Amino acid sequence: MPANIDAIVAEIHSHLAAENAQDLDELLDGMTEDCFNLVVPDPHRLYAGPEEVARRYRGLWATFPDLKVQMRRIISVQENIAVSEHTLSGTHGGSLFGVPATGRHVEVETAVVWDIVDGRIRGETVYFDLATMLRQVGHLQL
């Protein structure tokens, strides 16, 4: 394990706190200038640079105005990478990949691979079950 494990874990927790508070300035302050979000089930997938990352978060918050991301556990931390699991929840209050708001509650498990550079977050690769999310908003029958 790297010597700076506590600092990396603290940075991830700070990022999630800013995400939950919908504090875009704080969130981006913890990220590098070449930051990215790769959201695997998202048709857009890659959000590269602060402007696109900001656009992704604004869209997420518009879709789930009461978004909460709860850390379940950090699985691994190495020198420049960490892996964690979360529970994402919120009320479907805006367009979700083209599905109009339903007012339904959504709760899905997510996994994130964090790319860390010099103690700051360079990027997040986010995995979640889109089928479960679409089923919860009534758009998919399984």
TrEMBL record:
InterPro entries: Cyclase_SnoaL-like, NTF2-like_dom_sf. SUPFAM superfamilies: NTF2-like. Coiled coil: none annotated. The lineage of its organism: Bacteria, Bacillati, Actinomycetota, Actinomycetes, Streptosporangiales. Pfam families: SnoaL (PF07366). It comes from Sphaerimonospora cavernae. This is Ester cyclase.
